[in-house]
Amino acid sequence: MNKEYVLVINPGSTSTKVAVFKDETQIHEKKLEHSVDDLKQFEKLADQYEYRRNLIEEWMKECGVHIQSLRAVVGRGGLLRPLPGGTYHVSDPMIRDLKNGYQGEHASNLGGIIAKAIAEEASAEAFIVDPVAVDEFDEVARISGMPELERKSLGHALNIKAVARRAAKELNKSFHQVNLVVAHLGGGITVAPLLNGRAVDYNNANEMGPFSPERAGGVPAGDLMRMCFSGECSQKEIMNKLRGQGGLTAYLGTNDVREVEKQIEGGNETAKLVYQAMAYQIAKEIGSMATVLCGKMEAIVITGGMAYSDKLIEKIKEYIGFMAPVMVYPGEDEMLALNEGALRVLRNEEKPKIYEKEVEIT
Of 97, 214, 234, 252, which has the fewest beta carbons less than 10 angstroms from its beta carbon? Predict the structure, then answer.
């Protein structure tokens, strides 16, 4: 049987996105939903592995995709040890860290576990690509100003790297020889300077940088401290103000940029000011990260769901257009990015990385 397909697996907390690709073309896709009742029988996240795997294999049968026709299975990478970006073979040491939740339990931990199991059955290769744990920070970027609090690498690595590769190709340059500032504009906002393909810094969207549709971004530390100790808010309430109920949601009661734009069209001056402030903060962060590259960059790349808004892009360009050409790739296609990572290895365009050679396992 011809081995011609790549199976892509992207687990979420209550669903598993799956897709089958033939080269760059997606031929099947599905979002497999998991009810609370189905999941509550499992004590730990890793215990869901067999349940989710069975659903995926049943879906493949419904699509008429034989398991032996798979040349590779690629899963969303999880909370592994800090590691360089790239496509990784799923190895036994990686599986142990995913099952144990080395940096915590997260649904994406299941991606590599399921990929490895299905790949073994299919006599195919198993990969993960640019997991959440990607850490390519320069040491200087880790210093926060308080020795007890180190700046950590946590951002939208998969989409940032994927669009950077597309931009490099469009610029007729090698990904490993191009300097870019990439801004991912989603529910959270991450801005990353890529130096020869490495994300040498970026803001943790949960704690710093621009405010976004749902997150507060960097807020005045002293005032936040006083709020925490005022007795008026619980820890959970503070966390909700920072993540989930911050940003546009806090000011305007919506996390939908399209709704905010309608409010502005209707004459809402507060919406106009807050919208302008978000564009202003995004531009400031892009400018800040441009200094990491000493201003020497081929382009500024904007991606994520909010990049669909021409109005927002134009406002950001008003601030940053003088620095470099601006390239826009709206949306966030993780399934495509995972498939592209597998294809680069399968086509010998990139060597697969070995987890235990890239991280320190004691």
Answer: 234
